[in-house]
Design brief:
This protein is of the alpha+beta class and about 325 residues long.
Length: about 325
């Protein structure tokens, strides 16, 4: 599919997929989103790690290519700074593919994660990202990569200079450059996917809207992504998908709760409106296979780990 035809094909449905329409229409929109149904929607695997004395969750997250909020959500009872020696840590390395066109780059803000879908039959790739904080949010919608730059120059935006008047007008390449070594500039003026000289900000809402990546991850993405690659930014705290003929559900904290998790305040305990949405996603002859108790538990916990919500076929 060409970039032009992709834009035309998604012009009606993708706005709903990418906008903050919320739970009430989320699964209904799956029918409008090309690429929402695959033979297998699950990539990666959940793993476990046993802590050493000097580990922190920040260290463990980077070692396993996981973001900070994601590892905290998956391990809510663990002290992120002093987990202690011999503690079992869940590594949330399994991901349901986003319910959006599986083409180019897809960034899911609540998940704090980027997906890249190579042309042809290449396997999808996934990386944690940092995004814009409240009031400086990363925009939703469709754009594309317009150019690439090794050793980019950082020019602080007016809002950044207002926040910190002592910032220099221009920061050239080097260790003081917050864009790191590589940048993929987007069609939205002032926005880019780039590295960072503060890798521990990845997986958090800590930027002024740009998408930050671990230095090792952006180096990989930079090599394989070319200008013209479509980019879609979505807001999907809830994802569903099929794996080995079973339905899986993955629920992440929303953007506001991501800040609460980072601050150590935990989640707001509000009911997740998922029962009716699951019903819309399934054919009537599948409904009797749904484990509604598992659905509700996932809705309350929102740990960002895919769980099976259907009983096995007999």
């Amino acid at each position: 599919m060409t970039d032009a035809s992709w834009r035309l094909h998604t012009s009606a449905g993708a706005r709903a997929c990418t906008g903050g329409a919320g739970f009430a229409i989320f699964l209904f929109v799956l029918a409008l989103c090309p690429g929402a149904a695959r033979a297998d929607d699950l990539i990666g695997a959940v793993a476990a790690y046993t802590t050493k004395a000097r580990d922190t969750l920040l260290d463990i997250a980077r070692q396993h290519d996981i973001g900070f909020v994601a590892i905290r959500a998956a391990n809510p009872s663990v002290d992120p700074w002093v987990p202690g020696s011999g503690r079992r840590i869940v590594i949330p390395g399994a991901h349901l593919l986003p319910n959006a066109p599986h083409l180019g780059i897809v960034i899911n803000l609540p998940e704090l994660r980027l997906y890249y879908f190579p042309e042809g039959q290449g396997a999808p790739m996934s990386f944690p990202v940092g995004i814009g904080d409240e009031g400086k949010g990363t925009p939703l919608g469709l754009t594309e990569v317009v150019r690439k730059k090794v050793h980019p120059t950082w020019i602080p935006t007016p809002s950044e200079r207002q926040e910190n008047p002592e910032l220099p007008a221009i920061v050239g390449p080097g260790p003081d450059n917050p864009m790191g070594e590589y940048a993929l500039y987007l069609g939205w003026t002032g926005y880019a996917i780039h590295g960072s000289n503060k890798p521990y900000s990845v997986g958090r809402r800590d930027s002024h809207g740009c998408i930050r990546m671990y230095p090792e991850d952006v180096a990989v993405l930079f090599r394989i992504v070319e200008p013209g690659t479509p980019v879609v930014v979505i807001n999907q705290p809830v994802k569903t998908g099929w794996h080995k003929h079973e339905l899986y559900l993955e629920i992440h904290p929303d953007l506001q709760d991501a800040n609460r998790i980072e601050a150590g305040d935990g989640l707001r305990l509000r009911p997740a409106l998922v029962d009716a949405l699951i019903r819309k996603a399934l054919q009537p002859d599948h409904l009797d296979r749904v484990d509604w108790s598992a659905v509700r538990t996932a809705g309350f916990q929102r740990r960002g780990v895919p769980i099976r919500v259907t009983y096995s076929e007999r």
